[in-house]
Amino acid sequence: RAPPPRRRRPKAPKHETRSRRRADASTMLSPKIIALEEGWNNEIKAKAIDVLEDMLNTGLDKNKPRLFDPKEYVQTYTTCYNMCTQRSPYNWSEQLYQRHGETICDYLSKTVLPALKQKSGNALLTELTVRWSNHKIMNKWMRLFFMYLDRYYVKHHSLPTLDVAGLKHFKTLVYNEVKKDVVNAMIALIDAERDQALIDRALVKNTVELLEAMGMGSLDAYVTDFEDQLLASTKEYYARKSQEWVESDDAPAYLAKAEVALEAEAARVAHYLNGASEPKLLRVCEHEILELRETVLLEKEGSGCRALLANDRKADLARMYRLFGRVPNTPTHGLPPMAALVRAHIEQMGNDIIDRREARLSEGAKDSNQDPAFVKELLALHDKYLAVVSEQFGGNALFQKALKEAFVEFANRDVGKHTNAELMSSFCDRILKSGGEKLGDEDVEAFLEKTVQLFSYLTDKDLFAEIYRNQLAKRLLNQRSASDDAERLMIGKLKLRCGSQFTGKMEGMLNDLAIGHDHQADFEGYVKADSSRSTGKLDFSVQVLTTGYWPTFASIDAHLPPEIVQCTKVFKDYYDEKNSKRRVTWMWSLGNASVKAFFGKKAYDLQVATLQAIVLLTFNPLDGASQTLTYAQVAERVNLPDEHLKRVLHSLACGKYKVLAKTPMSSRVALTDSFAVNTKFSCPMRKIRVPMASLDESHNPKRVEEDRTVAIEAAVVRIMKARKALSHQSLLAEVLSQLAFFRPNPKVIKRRIEALIDREYLQRDPEVANAYRYLA
User: Fold this and answer.
1) How many Å apart are CA 599 and CA 617, to the nearest integer?
2) Total Cβ atoms within 10 A of residue 406
3) What is the pLDDT of residue 155?
4) Can you tell me the distance from the alpha carbon of 437 to that of 427, in angstroms, rounded to the nearest whole number?
5) How many Å separate Cα 410 from the centre of its chain?
6) What does the pLDDT read at residue 17?
7) How far does the chain reach from its first CA to its final CA, in angstroms?
8) Which of 214, 351, 467, 774 is most exposed, with the fewest beta carbons within 10 Å of its own?
9) Cβ–Cβ < 8 Å for 45, 95
10) Running along the chain, 776 residues long, what does each successive block of 10 average in pLDDT?
11) What pTM value is reported for the model?
12) Distance of CA 325 to the CA centre of its chain
């Protein structure tokens, strides 16, 4: 079935259609004008502001995600928008901005402030945080309702934004009225927590956030209204507490409480205060707890710094260092006073060791250059306090300096005939030579490292070097060195401390021995090449030493047996042929020999020094009969000075192995004694080493002084050449700073300057008193 035909509306005349369209457009562009009171009372206040205030007063519904649904919000926003976009005189932007502020002020003054005035203490803080939270909600929705004002009116008239205006109203009408009571309540809570009470930290944190917000983008309100009073309260609190602690507790207990208090203050800032308060708050605490009490704590009898060091209270020392490290360093506060006490304690401990050695010597103990127990005591003391400085004091430079100054003070305090430098060198000699200390490689290296550390505190390092070089020479030449690697290790450690100039001669000595094997092989080849160059039945070997590297040894022109004379002649011919520009000087005091000796039917191999061998050979039987020789006869045959011959004969007739018989029997050799082969000599060992006292001193003091003289003059000339003119005091100071291996007396330096003036290296300044000029 077909649908009925549609009725067509008759067309209007064209001019009539246009007229109707213009009317419709005019109606759309010209909405109804909203009067101020109508829009405010009927729409904005009734449907939005009153509803918002009612919800804030009765409590917010936590199950409701938004206070206003979108339709309600848009309706209020549209009303505000329309009232602000109407043409003048119906544009209500100014009035709405004013009423926005009046609404907030009215609510704050009539509802919020009276509620706060009724409260105090914790209740005040709780009410304030609730009201502040409500205000932020109210401020937010008021800004949303009147958002169009922010977009145009506020910008055009340079007014505070709605958000800022709301904050200012709260600050003026509420915060300024209650801030004094609020801050007092907050400080009371913080003090209660310091006294171990449990408090609502969230409450304090929320209040702190309010204080921060009152700064309008800065911390001015927080600092002025709260932080300054907090710092003053903290100062007063810890002044009282520290006085209680210092009267009732010993230093470790006091410092333990102080550390807990400082950690608690830092945690307090982290939990609910502004982070900018931490350094200020801790500084106040440190001043009251530590800085003002430092002297009393450090010197507290029975528990101060020195008592902790004496009792090895490592944990307490570490805490003391940590805490006083927080105090700014001055001569009387911070770490310097503690470092001074550490130095004094170490110095006392070192001097006690020196005093004990002095007491042993005064009681009759042998004054020998070998005192390993004494050196080990010093090494143990250094190990102990080096570990304390490294571990408990974190390697702090002040304490490293204190350790160094303390050891410099007593390590250079010599008692007895032998200096501490000689005792240290002899200790190294004992470790490095065979038959000395029985130590493994790791122990040897550890002892050497510790000894070098102790050596670094000596002011007379050149004296140590001279003694050590002499002992090294004896170890090397007498083949008593336990390990070449250990020798090089020690020299390397000294080189690291003092430079290559200090160890150059020692390294040269080792190099001489290294190339000595090549010399010996060449010599043996030279002898085998021609039968006329025979060394006879002797197994003859020679070690060539470079004069500049080795110590100065006693030069002895002994009468040698023909067998040895023949050998020396062959070697001299070989060496002259190979090195025509070098001269060979024989050092008979340094060699060694193996002598086959018969006592009755029993034969022994005697390991002796060359001079001992020369003396023994004079007692060979003559025409099959044994000889008895007087001291004078022996001296005539061997041509040795008395001081050397007495030592040789003493070692053979009065030592452990008496291979010669002396008449009369005694422990000393006299010029009237006579000697013969000891036919009754017997020993269970076939190979015997017969020891002999050294013919050379451990060092030559004159040579040390000569080397120092050269070093001082060289330093003076070097300085004056660079500076051209200098006062006496300045020159003295620079010379002392350049001399690293010893510290001369200023009078000695003055004498060397006088000598250089006499030799025309310098002249006195004619224009300036007590000044010198360099002469080119």
Assistant:
1) 14
2) 24
3) 86
4) 9
5) 22
6) 44
7) 140
8) 351
9) no
10) 49 44 42 83 85 83 74 88 87 89 91 90 92 90 87 87 90 92 94 92 93 90 94 95 93 95 94 94 95 94 93 94 94 94 96 94 88 94 95 95 95 90 92 84 92 92 88 86 90 91 90 85 84 79 87 81 87 84 83 86 88 89 78 89 88 88 87 88 89 69 77 89 89 86 83 87 86 84
11) 0.77
12) 13
Look at strands 628-630 and 674-677 and give their pairing: antiparallel
Measured at the CA of 190, the angle between CA 186 and CA 192, to 5 degrees, comes to: 115
Q: In 525-539, which positions are buried (b, 16+ CB within 10 angstroms) versus exposed (e)? A: ebbeeeeebebeeee
Q: How many CA atoms lie within 13 A of 81 on its CB side?
A: 11
Quote the distance between the C-alpha of residue 380 and its chain's center. Answer: 20
* Contact between 403 and 395 (Cβ < 8 Å): no
The packing angle between helices 500-529 and 484-498, to 10°, is 150
Separation CA 77–CA 71 (nearest Å): 10
Starting at the earlier edge strand, list the strands of the sheet with 592-599.
592-599, 602-609, 687-689
Helix-helix angle 228-248:277-286, to 10 degrees: 30
Give the span between the Cα atoms of 298 and 250, in whole angstroms: 11
399 contacts 393 by C-beta, under 8 angstroms: yes
Strand duo 725-727 + 602-609: pairing: unpaired
The edge-to-edge listing of strands for the beta sheet with 674-677 is: 628-630, 674-677, 660-663
What is residue 411's predicted lDDT score, i.e. its pLDDT? Answer: 93
| CB contact at 8 A, 501 and 711 | no
Query: How many Cβ atoms from other residues are within 10 Å of residue 602's Cβ?
Result: 11
How many residues does the structure list for the chain? 776
**Per-residue tokens: 492:** 């390397």
- Tokens, residue 122: 């914790």
- Give which of 258, 80, 208, 100 is closest to 164, Cα–Cα: 100
Angle at 698 between CA 696 and CA 704, to 5 degrees: 105
**Amino acid of residue 238:** Y
Strand partners, 774: 762
Torsion, Cα of 418, 421, 423, 428 (10° steps): -150
User: Tokens 């070093």 — which residue?
Assistant: 711
Query: For the purposes of burial, counting CB atoms within 10 Å of the CB of 247, is it exposed (0-12), middle (13-18) or buried (19 or more)?
Result: exposed
470 in helix, strand or coil?
helix
